[in-house]
Structure formats: C-alpha cells, structure tokens
Amino acid sequence: MTVTSVVRAACPHDCPDTCAMLVTVEDGRAIKVHGDPAHPTTMGALCTKVSRYPERTYHPERVLHPLRRVGPKGSKRFVRVSWDEALGDVAARLQSIAARDPEAIVPYSYAGTMGLVQGESMAARFFHRLGASRLDRTICSAAGGAGLAATYGGKVGMHVEHFAESRLIVIWGSNSITSNLHFWAFAQAAKRNGAKLICIDPRRTDTADKCHQHIALLPGTDGALALGVMHELIGNDWLDHDYIERHTEGWPKLRERALEWPPERVAATCGITADEVRGLARDYGSTAPAAIRLNYGMQRVRGGGNATRLIAILPCLVGAWRHRAGGLLLSASGWFAPRVGDAALKRPDLLGGRRPRTINMSTIGDDLLREADERLPDGSRFGPRIEALVVYNSNPVAVAPESPKVLAGFRRDDLFTVVLEHFMTDTADEADFVLPATTQLEHLDVHTSYGHTYALINEPAIAPLGEARPNTQIFRELAARMGFDDACFKESDEAIARQAFDPARSGIAFDTLREHGWAKLQLAEAPFANGNFPTRSGRCMIDSPTLGIPDHVPNHETPATTPELAARYPLAMISPPARHHLNSTFVNVTSLRAIEGEPLVEIHPDDAVPRGVVSGALVRVFNDRGSYLCKAEVATRARPGVVNGLGIWWRKLGPDGTNVNELTHQRVTDLGAGPSFYDCLVQVEVAAPATA
Ligand SMILES: Nc1nc2c(c(=O)[nH]1)N[C@H]1C(S)=C(S)[C@@H](COP(=O)(O)OP(=O)(O)OC[C@H]3O[C@@H](n4cnc5c(=O)[nH]c(N)nc54)[C@H](O)[C@@H]3O)O[C@H]1N2
Ligand SMILES: Nc1nc2c(c(=O)[nH]1)N[C@H]1C(S)=C(S)[C@@H](COP(=O)(O)OP(=O)(O)OC[C@H]3O[C@@H](n4cnc5c(=O)[nH]c(N)nc54)[C@H](O)[C@@H]3O)O[C@H]1N2
Ligand SMILES: [Mo]
C-alpha cells in the first residue's frame, strides 16, 4: 500500500515571491511540489524552475558524501571520505589558522537558501565564536537597500497585493515575468481593469513586450530619468504640495537640481526621446493611484544608490502614498527586520568585544589576492592574508564579479577552502573539502520575504539523501570539534526556528506557522498615507544629513567618463537573469537547460551587421579583464549600443569554460559598496561562423 502525505514547505530561493509550497510525498519520496492555492500571493502557482525541485533534489549528480581533494587545485580530482575524517580535518585546519589569527578565516555565503535557520543561524554563531572575519553581504541589493534606507528609513514599501488596484504601474528595472512572477499576476489584474503599464529597462524583455509602453534607456541612467520626471512635475504643477509639506524634508534643494534637467538633457543622457520623458511624467503626474515596482536590476551600476533615492522620492512628490494602491515597492524585507530575532539567531555577542575586520563579498577576487597588511585604497591596512574560506549557500566562482581574479584567488595553493553544496559547482570544483548539504525538501526552516509580507514555514518532507546534512548540523559538529561548548551550539533546528520570530513583537507564533503554513504581518494598508516613514522624523528624507541631496551619478565605464576605454570597447553590457535559472542555480537541471539552450549574448542588428555577427555565430565578448565565448542572437531585445549577456551560467558549461563575469569589474556602487555588474564596457567579434 502506498503511503501518501502532503507537507507544507516554502520556496527557499533568492526571489521576491517566496512561495508557499505543498510537497506530495509517496513512500518517503517527494514526487511533486505545487504552489499553495490558499496562500494569497502564491495563488497555487509555482514558476517553471521551482516546479522542477524534485528533479533537482534527486539529480544523479547530487553530492551525497563528503569529498576531499586529491589532485592539484582545480583538477577536479576528489575522493570520498567519511564525515568523521572530513570534519576532523577541517576543524584541525581551522583551529591551527585561528591559533595564529582567526581573521585569516572568512565565511562566504549568500542566499542559496533564504531560510532563517539554514542561512545565517548556526553558521553565524560559529564564525562569531571563532572571531573570523565578517562578511559584508553586498552582492545583490546593497546600493538599492542603502538608497531606500536613506530615503524611507528602511526597506519598506507597498503590499504587493495592492498593485491589482493601481491605475498606472511603472515596472522599473525589473523583468517581472522572469524574476517576480507573482507580482506580475497582480499587474495583469490591474491591466484587465484598465491600468496602464510602463516598463523601464534597457532590454526589451518578455515583461516589456506585455506592457503598454517600453522605455529602453541606457544602463545606469535611471537617476537622470527620475530628475527629468521631476522637472516636468514641477513645470506642470503635478505636485501634491500638501504631502510634500507635511511628510518630506529637503524638497526645495532637490527642486533646484531637478530644474537643471529639462527633457532634452535627460533624453541625451538616457539615449531616449524627450517625448518619452514628457509622456512618462504626464502619466505619472496625472494618474492616481500610481505605483512603481522598482527592482534591483537598476542598481547594479555605479550610481545605483542615488538612482534609487531619486526614484523613491517620486511617490512623495505626487502624494501617491495616500492610496494603498499607490507608492513604490523595491523590498519588503524591512517590515520583517524589527520582528526577526536576529540576535538570538546569530549571537553576535559571542564575539565578546572582538571587532574582526569586514570583507566585502563583491571584491573577493581582489581580497583573495591581497598580501598581509597591504595598504587599501582608503589608506587602511588589510590585516592578515586570507588563509581559509568556508563557502555555503553561494557559488562565488560563477557569480562574483571579475572571475579571472576570483579564480586565481581560489587556485592559491596556500588557501584552504571548504564548500558546503548540493552539486559540484564551479566553486566546489576549487575546494579542498566539499561537504554535502541538504536541500529544502530535507530540512526544517522558516522564511520571511522581500516581495510580500507573509512569514512561512518549511517542514522537512523527506529524509536527507545519502549522507547529506543540513548546514546547521555541519556547523554544530564543527563547533563541537573545535571545543565551542556554549549551549547555543547544541540547539536543534526546531529550537532555532522557534526563536526566529518573537511572538510578542512580531505577532507570529511558530505553532501558527506549523498549523497554517504561513502568517501575514500586521501592517497598515497604506503605510505612508500620513507620513510615518521609519525615519527619525517620520518624514521621507529627500535631503539626507549625511549624503546631501541625490544626483545622477554616471557609470564607472561610459563614453563620457572614460572615452579612451569606450573607443576600444564601445558596447555596454548588462547581464540580467535568464528566466529558467535562479542566479547560477538550476543551470544543471536537464529539463530547464533544454529550455535556456546555451550561453548567449543578444546584440542589436545595428551593432551586429558592421561586425559581421549573425544569429548562431560563436562570438568573443571581451575587454581588458577577460574574454568570454558564447553564441550570438541578433535581436531587437537588445537596444543599439547595449548587449545582453544572460546569466548566470556555470563557467564549465560555457564553450570555453568562462561565463559573463569574466568581463565584469569589482568597482563598487556609490552607496552600500555593492557590485556594478551592469556597468561594463565590452567589444564583440565573430569567433566562428554560425552553425546550424
Ligand atoms: N527566474 C529568475 N528569477 C530571479 C532571479 C533569477 O536569476 N532568475 N534572481 C533573483 C534575484 S537574486 C533577485 S536580486 C531578484 C531581482 O532580480 P533582478 O536581477 O533585479 O531581476 P530582474 O527583475 O530581472 O531585473 C533585472 C532587469 O533590469 C534590467 N536592467 C539592467 N540594467 C538596468 C538599468 O541600468 N536600468 C534599468 N531600468 N533596468 C536595468 C535588466 O535588463 C533586467 O530586465 O530576482 C530574483 N528572481
Ligand atoms: N553578471 C552577473 N552576476 C551576478 C548577477 C547578475 O545579474 N549578473 N546577480 C547577482 C545577484 S543579484 C546575486 S543575489 C548573486 C547570487 O549569487 P549566489 O547567492 O551565489 O546564488 P547562486 O548562484 O544561486 O548559488 C547559490 C548556491 O547555494 C547552493 N545552496 C542552496 N541551498 C543550499 C543549502 O541549503 N545549503 C548549502 N550549503 N548550499 C545551498 C546552491 O546549490 C547554489 O549553488 O549573483 C550575483 N551575480
Ligand atoms: Mo540577487
């Protein structure tokens, strides 16, 4: 007789949608995952990639046993070892480095899982107790997050459900159909009710195709466009003077700056027409409620922080926040932040007064290659050379900028690298030890979201495959072997999960999550209708005491700022996500790879013809940092002057073992010290003729 059960789960991926899932288990095997029909934003639907979660979990290439490197670094020669041997060796090696200087050890992690338990709980406790270097987790959203915090006081915004009632939706720097599908469902509902949809994106995405209008600006010029909209709002008096007066600070100063940005100047900067600027301002200034779905695609450039500030000010100028279907959403994570028991989860008190240095994850290439006490650009000293790296929930060799340097760092013979993974990623290939981790179906977790306002639970649906262990368990055992006897290192996953939300402050009880799967935060419908921003004054900070008023900040690499470079590398390259990948996750799932095909770069016919590039040709995309081979697709998805290298493939799946990050650089953003992936000049040439 078959025993069937349905288990409550949550999608763990780095995506704003954080879906509530139901897992069907038959005789101990997960056979299907589906979206919870009762969850108000999941609405019974999962994206194509996550509906393949069982295929990924039972993938024949899952790493199911600890592995130790036997060949030279990068030779990909490993042998199976026991957990006992692996943990013993890792603990001994970390201990001997820590005896000299624990700061020589660096954790490297991001959002492979967004779970509060399998993310930074036991791991953070371990590194705090050790006194290891800290990691500034900037790789995704640092510039936008800092911009939003400077303006609103936190990463807060509209409830995603209310977009269904908006009359105008500006989708800004977001390919929603790819990366925010459940928001798109609300945008579609609004469209059916007569709302106008405008997409602002250098690439003509699937989302742009389905909007009423697409404004294909040059990458990194969003701040100028926002200033141009302000110029028109002022000139036509489409301003909500009462809202500005009561709920903002500093408008007179920014008003002066905006008056310097007439539509013609904006058009020249953004590579669009002056009428597009005027039309956008007219729609925005004369439609209510007007909502902006901003996403992180627009802040992966030098001026990403300032651009976020400028765009976030717009809803205050027209009083859009007065309506629950007006305002802006970039991230909702700030609604959770005060409700999550961060200190209990991560235990920074275990540092006990020590203040280890902080390594920026976006410059890991440079930092792995630095010498001890090297003088840094800001005049400070680097501290000890990095001697050990412990990687979990991330694939830096594929996703971090300027991979030639990242790889050279990982190949250092004197670097000890431990990677906790599901698969032999580009990063795992470079490890000394690979430790097999469980997937979401195999462990307990609780989740917040950055795109909606529900907390969720993920119950384990199946037993761990092979010898895989949860991240928590791996750090728990390493802690024991290193003699860390604090009580927190003995806590079970459930004990940790129970501390994630303090019910008194958050209104979320673990047992409620267990019973219902998810729980909504208690928040106002129109949170800023009467100001009440989480700033000190409760007002939106147009002028910031520390940063002044925002401005358009041009890219690191542009014809105007770096003409000599632009003469050699005249094309701007952006590298946004491919629909069926989640960063570099899922690229090895056969059925999804079949849909995405192979690494490619989209190039406009105006740029392709003079270079002799035709669709299907193998091309070399290059600059001073490196060279990347991939297929060309000649298409008007690319605008003239901009090529789109869709991401993020594993390097080893590319025709010459590279990916798009071979070309990106490590210079950081204006605010938040994030990476500038989409601020990158390249040249393209034919490498081999088209094949059928
Ligand atoms: N399927 C899928 N979903 C994902 C991801 C994925 O890899 N695949 N990634 C997840 C992650 S990590 C994140 S952070 C979130 C958000 O993910 P984001 O990476 O922000 O994804 P998108 O919403 O696709 O936004 C990128 C869009 O911004 C555009 N863009 C690039 N440069 C500029 C610019 O200078 N200005 C403007 N206006 N637009 C620009 C790109 O062409 C692209 O269409 O989504 C998550 N969801
Ligand atoms: N050129 C370019 N580069 C980019 C971007 C871009 O748009 N263009 N996007 C950037 C952005 S927005 C982001 S967020 C980063 C993302 O970078 P990463 O956070 O590194 O994301 P992934 O590539 O998905 O790698 C996550 C890894 O975690 C593993 N994993 C998942 N769950 C678990 C678990 O429970 N335990 C352990 N031990 N491992 C687990 C997965 O198998 C996967 O290999 O990439 C950035 N890089
Ligand atoms: Mo991200």
From TrEMBL:
Tree of life domain: Bacteria
An MF annotation (GO) of this entry: iron-sulfur cluster binding
Keyword line: Iron, Iron-sulfur, Metal-binding
Cross-referenced Pfam families: Molybdop_Fe4S4, Molybdopterin, Molydop_binding
Every 4Fe-4S Mo/W bis-MGD-type domain range: 4-61
UniProt record similarity statement: Belongs to the prokaryotic molybdopterin-containing oxidoreductase family.
Protein name in the entry: Molybdopterin oxidoreductase family protein
Organism for this UniProt entry: Piscinibacter koreensis
